Amino acid sequence: MPPADRIRDHAGQGATTVAAHRARRRLRADRARQLADLLRRQILTEAFPDTTLPHEDALAAEYGASRNTVREALDLLRAEGLVARQPGVGTVIVARKYAHGLDRLMGLAETLHEHGRITNEVRTTAAVRAPAPVAERLHVPPAADVLYIERLRRLNGIPLSLDLTYLPLDIGTPLLGADLENTDVFRLLESLTGTPLGHAEITLEAVTADAHCSAVLEAPRGTAVLMLERLTHLADGRPVDLEFIRFRGDRIAMSGLLHRSR
User: Fold this and answer.
1) Residue 90 backbone class (left: φ over 0; alpha: ψ -120 to 50; beta: rest)
2) CA distances from 222 to 57, 63, 141, 213 (A)
3) How do residues 129-168 score in pLDDT, each as one tens digit?
């Protein structure tokens, strides 16, 4: 075989070897991601009551995975801040996520009452000229004043969400004398209006935390947060509460029960 042909043949074999290596790495990464999803679910449902995950060998045997795959899966969970490696102990859970239901209209304190006490740091309360999208959604005249409330919400002292709320003045003004630091706005609205809440339209998406949001939530700058936009109506259909809520994604997991209509 001429030298040039031998070089080309060797190069072709090398390319095949590199491609096969990359394929194996991709497969292991896929399996690690799948395993991380399963372990994350176990963590969220408190399946490890002593807060220590099984040994890597035990996880490998249980899930039919290689030890390298298990290590990559644990690396993913470490990057999320859920677990940490402790010498002499193993992999331990260092953070919790709390289930926030999406199938009932409830305030945060109502939703998480089993996990502790929600307190609110009221950062801003002011009458502001309604931006056009806010006026449209709250059905108030263009450029009308609305009440704007910004709250940092904590669970057992830990920052959980930053809530930006707009309310029509006739609905919102009575809230100024209420206990906004310890009570959900939903509960106050029903108490002050004497009218039950009816329904809400929601949109949930991931957004990048800006510098202000990161500082307030004590989250790394540039991290992703869960943004819940919610427009709540009274039972008679009137829109009364437009909220933009930024949750720390490493502390909240959205959950719900969905039925397939026929």
Assistant:
1) left
2) 35, 34, 36, 10
3) 999 999 999 999 998 999 999 999 999 999 999 999 999 9
